[in-house]
Write a structure and sequence with these properties.
Arc Repressor Mutant, subunit A, 5-stranded parallel beta sheet, 13 helices, about 10% strand
Length: about 290
């Protein structure tokens, strides 16, 4: 926000009356403004939508969505839980929560497809396929993603370690054997986990390949990563939306399976025999009522 507020202060004398209203609102309520549409911001401060769009252009942005995205990326990791709830209340006032949340998730998947690097994705899959040991690190709300990825990778690979809880020294105790032969997949979204950054930094120093699954190139995970997989994240009240990150994880799993096709077929063939022998899954055949 510092850069945006600096721009506003530098150019405020040249603003129209309406633009000054927008500038004042952003300065005082940037946590809310970052998640308002141009129309909503305009009606809130008492100006037209076109005035809001011109304001963004005046600051040098290529349209209002660019300014809004810049604001969001700079503050989402700084919002407290209470602020998140307040922002969500303003965003969803008068609209269907179900429709709004699902539509926003669809949009995040679309943006993920646009922004993630195909080259980094392919390089990440290659590094994972060649690794001696695969470490998956994610804590707090992202821990569920680590568990999901770890479940499937444990079926595909022999040596997978999931770290989704930690103590002050526990992270390093679980990572102290990591080496240049290994890979670590670090997963974190706003509000970014300090533990994830520390774990990935430690792995990087030990020569391991480091893969980040995060929401943008401004994420603190990027600086310590060899490959970055962008998956757009957002919040629904105090809840983190992890739909797009889960889609990215699904893509990683599928790509890995295709890369190790014959081996994975043999593995799952054996697993199917075990699952059938021990009656793991519900039999779909209906019993004869007679």
């Amino acid at each position: 926000m510092k850069n945006l507020l600096s721009l506003i202060n530098e150019r405020k004398t040249g603003f129209s009356k309406g633009q000054k209203l927008i500038a004042d609102f952003i300065a005082k309520h940037y946590d809310k403004a970052a998640f308002m549409t141009a129309s909503k911001l305009g009606s809130t401060v008492g100006v037209s939508e076109s005035t809001v769009v011109r304001f963004a252009t005046e600051l040098g942005y290529d349209g209002y969505p660019k300014m809004q995205r810049a604001m969001q990326e700079m503050i989402t990791d700084k919002l407290t839980s209470v602020q998140r709830i307040e922002v969500t209340q303003s965003r969803m006032s008068g609209v269907s929560v179900l429709e709004s949340v699902l539509n926003k998730d669809v949009e995040k998947i679309r943006k993920t497809l646009e922004e993630t690097s195909q080259e980094d994705f392919e390089n990440a899959v290659e590094a994972i396929s060649r690794a001696k040991t695969i470490y998956i690190f994610a804590v707090r709300s992202s821990a569920a993603l680590a568990s999901f990825l770890g479940y499937y990778y444990s079926l595909i690979f022999e040596n997978v370690k999931v770290i989704n809880n930690y103590g002050e020294t526990e992270v390093y105790e679980k990572l102290f054997r990591i080496s240049a032969d290994d890979v670590i997949i670090g997963i974190s979204f706003p509000r970014y986990s300090n533990a994830a950054i520390q774990a990935m930094t430690f792995a990087k120093r030990r020569g391991s390949k480091v893969i980040a699954l995060t929401d943008s190139m401004s994420s603190p995970l990027v600086a310590v990563s060899d490959y970055v997989l962008i998956a757009k994240s957002d919040m629904a009240a105090v809840v983190d939306s992890l739909v797009a990150p889960l889609s990215m994880i699904n893509a990683l799993i599928v790509a890995t399976v295709l890369k190790r096709d014959d081996e994975v077929k043999r593995t799952f063939g054996m697993l199917e025999d075990i699952w059938q022998e021990y009656d793991v899954y519900q039999n779909n055949r209906k019993d004869d009522p007679d």
